[in-house]
Amino acid sequence: xxxxGRKKIEEAKQNGQWNAPEPAAVTDEQIALLTDVLRxxxxxxxxxxxxxxxxxxxxxxAYLDAKTDTGREKRIVGxxxxxxxxLKPM
Length: 90
Description:
Layout: H1 3-15, H2 28-38, H3 44-50, H4 53-64, H5 69-84
Helix pairs in contact: 3-5, 4-5
């Protein structure tokens, strides 16, 4: 390992990132939840269902990470826009 790598490890240990818990994995139920939300939006729903599992998980995380219902409503607008264009999340 280089000195740069050792320095980054020390920084992570000092700022708490080294021992930070892993984020929770996206479940099948959460994917189904977003699928249900998207059902009223075509072709977004069809495009979402055709996406690889890793991409679906990224969209689910983006949707569920919003803290409030208002935030989720705003997020779904952007998600639907990207899915209508059959784009992966940014």
